[in-house]
Amino acid sequence: AAEKPKRPVFLTILCICTYIGVPVTIIMSFLALGGIQSLITDYMQALNGAKQIGDMFLGGGDVSNTMNEVTDATNSLAETATMWMNISVIVFAVFLLLCLIGAIMMWKLKRKGFYIYAVGELIPAITAFGFYMKIPSYVPIPGEMINLMYVFIGTSVLFLVLYSLNLKHLK
């Protein structure tokens, strides 16, 4: 009987890290989404409260009408932003699942798993960087978000490089 190829310890450790990291990242993404949606809801309630106070004291007129237009436009923008955040978290989860599938295949020493993993890592990282580059310079972005993006991209590239070091063991 042919001897079954042995999986290198380094590849085993990487796969286990991926098995743990993917579900944790998916859960954290959905929790973060809930927090962001809560902030949007709180902001919109405050804005609508300000609109109602303005209506009470201003009783119509140009300022009140402008406040109504701003509130309506902001509500529309908040709904659109929430919809796109929901979609992006789901799409992100799909790519994370590709990483998990790729890691499972690499655990079984299948080279195709590396390429599936690479797609799951690179497309979201490139997309995040592309979106960041398209944001106009006058739009303020919190430093934490920029740092988080760099950590995300750096981790993606690091794991891809580390998995690539094991390509010689994959068939």
Characterise this structure.
Helices cover 83% and strands 0% of the residues. The chain contains 4 helices and no strands. The protein starts with 8 loop residues before the first helix and ends in a 7-residue tail after the last helix. The mean pLDDT is 86. The radius of gyration is 23 Å and the shape is elongated. It has 171 residues and is mostly helical.
Question: Layout of SSEs?
Answer:
Blueprint (H helix, E strand, L loop, with lengths): L8 H50 L2 H47 L4 H23 L8 H22 L7
Which series of helices and strands comes N to C? Answer: HHHH
Overall 3D geometry? elongated
Question: What's the total number of strands?
Answer: 0
Strand content: under 5%
Please outline the major beta sheet.
none
Whole-angstrom Rg: 23 Å
Q: Specify the number of helices.
A: 4
Termini, distance in Å? 19 Å
Residue ranges: pLDDT <50 for 5 or more in a row?
Answer: none
| Average residue-wise pLDDT | 86
| Helix fraction bin | over 70%
Classify the secondary structure makeup into a structural class. mainly alpha
Concise structural overview:
With 171 residues, this protein is mainly alpha-helical. It is 83% helix and 0% strand.
